[in-house]
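If you are new to this repository, start here. Below is one unmodified record pulled from the training split, so you can see the exact layout before writing a loader.
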Amino acid sequence: MKFTNEAEKAIISWAKDNQMDVAIQKIALEKDGKIFDRVEFFFEIMSKWKSEIEKADFIFIAAHSQGTPVSILLLSKLFEYGIINPNKKIGILAMAGINNGPYLGVDQTFLVRAYSAIENESMLELFQFQNFASSQSKKYLEAIRIIISYGVKICYIGSINDQMVPLYSSIASHVYHPYIYRAVYIDGGSNTPDFVSRVVSLSTWLLNIGYSDHGVIKEISHALAGPLTGGGHSKIYNDINVYKTALDFILKTTDFNGWSYTGPSGSTTKYQLSPSSSSPTAAASADGGKAEKIPEMCQQPVRFEEFDIKRIGSNPYNLPWCTRGLFHEVLKRIPEGDKQIEMVFKEFGEWNPESKALKDIKYRLNGIRAKL
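And here is the target side for that same chain:
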């Protein structure tokens, strides 16, 4: 009930801010276990809510951690079987979601081994998302493609000092589409350095406007891990502004007919949806049967970039090179980018990291000013 209650408070507050009156129906879905077992269980529950779902003008899904892939897979199935009308306005808030698995190597720690056999099995399944060839990853990425083709918007918000999920995973840095927005929650008690906050902010800014961060988020994620007790994994869902950020993106941004993505090499790929809508032309059958297959042209706009998770952070020369690319993108793509870079250099000079991981990050970046 935690997320539904917090989401309800946020919607009421957001509606008041925007001079709107709303009526809210909450549906809390809770169950432990493996991902696909949970999807099947929740699907049976949601099937019984079909009449209430049909009455809704807007559907807001708030998910956390393992619940992120569960929610996206569930929504895809609800579309597939006609439980949800494809013309509905729908948005997902994915908080600290395990989109690329937990931190590499966490499965070997005492934290995981201490769980019961059943809990351990569920947790170990999450590491399958580190492998793009696994059935979990393939089905999850296909579900993202399907729900976005129906016009669903996803707001991925990661926690800067998450002790379980690396930032590149929680913000789904491998998935690109204008219906995806990324943000990072920085807890006031995390003591996050200004330099790190700004670099992360600039990286997500670039990703949100269709450009590359040149892999900076991936390269620094390992150094941002918080303590096993008191980290940001479970703090993110207590802040109402997290929910309102998602609502702003979902409800205040427009739909589109086409878009382009510019990769690190500067090459641009253009995509085009059907002229009339961003939703697929095949609608679910009225009797609740399985919907028609989504046309190929509606599946293409979502772009995925695979990478080798085991190689992240292994080469000390990667980070300065990636950061150089990031700075050039900032200068070229972001308003007053030169002032942003000046602030980056100022904050870098004032930064005195305490942890070994962050000291290593600063050491690797010592030459960035000279190389820009």
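Two things worth knowing about this chain: The first strand starts at residue 58 and ends at 64. Confidence is low (pLDDT under 50) at residues 269-300.
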